[in-house]
Amino acid sequence: MADLEDEVLARIERQRKLRPRWRDDRITMTHGAGGKATHTLVAGLFEPAFSNQALAQLTDAAFLDIDGARMAMTTDAFVVKPLRFPGGSIGELAVNGTVNDLSVSGARPVALSAAFIIEEGLDGDVLRAEVDAMAEAASRADVSIVTGDTKVVERGKADGMYIVTAGMGLRVHQEPLSGASIMPGDRILCSGPIGDHGTAIMLARGELELDADVQSDTAPLWPLARALMAAVGSSLRVMRDPTRGGVATVLNELASDANVGVVLDEAAVPVRPPVKGACEILGIDPMYVANEGRLLAVVAPEAAAHALEAMRNVPGGDGAALVGEVAAQPAGMVLVRTGFGGTRIMDMLIGDPLPRIC
Amino acid sequence: MRYVDEFRDANLARTLSTQIAAVAEPGRHYKVMEVCGGHTHTIYKHGIEDHLPETIELVHGPGCPVCVIPMGRVDDGISIARRPGVIFTCFGDMMRVPGGDGSLLDAKAQGADVRFVYSPLDALKVARLNPEREVVFYAIGFETTAPSTALTLMRAKAEGLTNFSVMCNHVTIVPPLKALLESPDLRLDAFIGPGHVSTVIGCRPYEFIPADYGQPVVVAGFEPLDLLQAVYMIMLQLAEGRSEIENQYGRVVPWEGNLRALEVLQEVFELRPYFEWRGLGFISQSALKLSDAYRDFDAELRFDVPGVRVADPKACQCGEVLKGVIKPWECKVFGTACTPETPIGTCMVSSEGACAAYYNFGRFARSTARAGS
User: Fold this and answer.
1) Distance CA B221, CA B240 (A)
2) Quick one: A241 and A329 in the same domain?
3) DSSP secondary structure letter of residue B53
């Protein structure tokens, strides 16, 4: 019987590896949740339609070599509700989010654009506060906001305001960091406690009548990324920021890109007690909850200790931990060793556990 | 975290695991059904099967509230949700359950105002905030969730709210258990009894299982150590030739249940003569509807619902999975045509469904995992 089960599982894996095709009749909220439906939309519709080599990598930022200049480019839209939440606001998020997509791609953020879609009737002070937050975040991340656009839409649309930012960065290394380069034995590092941002937003929406002191972790990741690259050089395989879809989604993408197994030690993944408590009550796994200031890195085994030390010496990286390693099997999957001494797989996010978080 | 970590201690688990293996009779195969979907979820999420000898097979039962809703009832809900002026509220899982023509999530994308809530009281709040709209709550669940629906209705009545109603799909746990025990294609050795249902109904309603069928029942909690301990208690009963009801979840479940909750259920609900269960067919006196005193709040009376029976897709074997006759992976469409993203059957939708739990957490060759450790 076990043989038959393995056969069924192997067939399912083959099916899962097929290129996703987008055939959905309509967009539902799950298409924006960062999980499987989003992946299908991007890989099954956008990527084949816009088909080019830079896009095909589907990395956090595209790598462009322009007349010898090693550039990286990225964009991100921010539709978070509420606009302000403990630990941050939409403006700060709009700068840090784009800065971080560049940073984890190994590129020093240089310049950003900012486009505002504003709802008619928005309080002027609310707008000013967000613009100030963006200026401050840009200054903290040492990046300039060099161009922008403004649109106003009718009352009742855009929930106050949406912000779209794009960013240009300068890559440190010639060879782009790539998820495909990870190999069995490599170690997985996480820069600090996970799930803070998504949980903070969820609580700030006030629909759950839960009270807990949780602050968003929104922060620029460039100092961490730079310190890691300087400390371990080519032993650094790849960096990612686990935003929507959380740590689980990023690790699944890595396992699938390199066709390796990712083995995560559940007890080693840092989660703050109030986040753990809120997630426990709501039946949500913190591994799927968004982060806006955390970095996951995969490094060669011999460089792990040094990399951890480098991360812990950077503000915001003091909670860094070794959380797992890469194995040959089960290829393309993330296996969790539970704190209880059992095992389970951890798949990509399905559906939408949380409303608009970034 | 207090009250959580104590129940997930790996050292205690190893001790229990050894004790379980010690009382298992060599060469005997044990089939133990966990009735409740919450247990199924815990089993996969924490990898409990890794702590059990291979001769103990856990069979997943029918106790997942979302899984047992037939397609026709989903369609009835969607037909109400599509009416102009209606705000349709339900639990999150329910939104993805496919009906004959799409799910509530699809109806939402097409313009219906469908909102997910964490509690029926949240639905009541929506009704208060939107007095000009009709607010409907799609109630599902066993005796666990029925009291909260009942209290919500009592409050709505006390407040004189006229724009709130409930489409009631509450079901009861004992009739499907009887149906399973009478089913010729399933031979079980014992039951892990549902924990939270039993906080309401107590342990007495299961007395017929040891009395008439000679099988042990151990009512269990939802933390991984609860389940391992329940399996151990079952194995001891079987080894000693006993068949009794035992309560492993004494910290929450009183033997007599929650009398106040039972009173509330009596007042607000009455038994339906029969109700269709997904995959199990019609089971008599197995579900609740609003009592006469609450008929004004009955969405099925307030709105004209089609009430058409929709046959399950041919390929779908949810019924056999719900009865524990086949394992999720033995279903013809498991993981290929039917996945959590595009579910055909209900068992693939809810996180408590056996198929979703297996697909999300258990879908790997355990031999490989062990070899790799």
Assistant:
1) 23
2) yes
3) -
Separation CA A37–CA A299 (nearest Å):
29
Cβ within 8 Å, pair B363-A345: yes
Letter string b/e over residues B192-217, b meaning 16 or more CB atoms within 10 A of that residue's CB: bbbbbbbbbbbbebbeebbeeeebbb
Look at residue A357 and tell me if it is in a domain.
Answer: no
Q: How far is CA A83 from CA A136, A210, A228, in A?
A: 16, 19, 32
Q: Is some CB atom of chain A closer than 8 A to the CB atom of B369?
A: yes
Give B298 to chain A, closest Cα distance, Å: 26
How far is residue A263's CA from residue A267's CA, in Å, rounded to a whole number? 12
| Contact flag A11-B122 (C-beta cutoff 8 Å) | no
How is chain B split into domains, by residue range? 5-64+189-247, 71-173+257-302, 318-362
Q: Which of A119, A151, A176 is the last residue of a domain?
A: A176
Q: Shortest Cα distance from A282 to chain B (angstroms)?
A: 9
How many domains does the structure of chain A reveal?
Answer: 2
Among A12, A30, A343, whose Cβ lies nearest the Cβ of B335?
A: A12
For residues B130 and B124, what is the distance between their CA atoms, to the nearest angstrom?
10
Strand A69-78 and strand A161-171: pairing? antiparallel
Q: The complex's ipTM?
A: 0.79
* Cβ contact B46–A342 (<8 Å): yes
A338 to B46: CB separation less than 8 angstroms, yes or no: yes
CATH number belonging to the domain at B71-173+257-302, selected among 3.20.20.150, 1.20.140.10, 3.40.50.11740, 3.40.309.10: 3.40.50.11740
Show residues of chain A in contact with B363, CB under 8 Å.
Answer: 9, 12, 345, 347
CATH assignment of the domain containing A254: 3.90.650.10
| Residue A117, domain member (yes or no) | yes
Residues A238, A329, single domain; the answer is yes
Picking from A11, A337, A344, the nearest residue to B45 by CB comes out as: A344
Which chain A residue is nearest to residue B97, measuring alpha carbons? A351
Q: pLDDT (tens digit, 0 to 9) for every residue of chain B, 373 residues total?
A: 777 788 888 899 999 999 999 999 999 999 999 999 899 989 988 989 999 999 999 998 888 888 889 999 999 999 999 999 999 999 988 888 888 888 998 999 999 999 989 889 999 999 999 999 999 999 999 999 999 999 999 999 999 999 999 999 999 999 999 988 988 877 899 999 999 999 999 999 999 999 999 999 999 999 999 999 999 999 999 999 999 999 999 999 999 999 999 999 999 999 999 999 988 889 999 999 999 999 999 999 999 888 888 888 888 888 888 888 888 989 988 988 888 888 888 888 877 788 988 888 887 765 555 544 4
Answer whether A330 sits within 8 Å of B364, measured CB to CB.
yes
Distance CA B72, CA B305 (A): 10
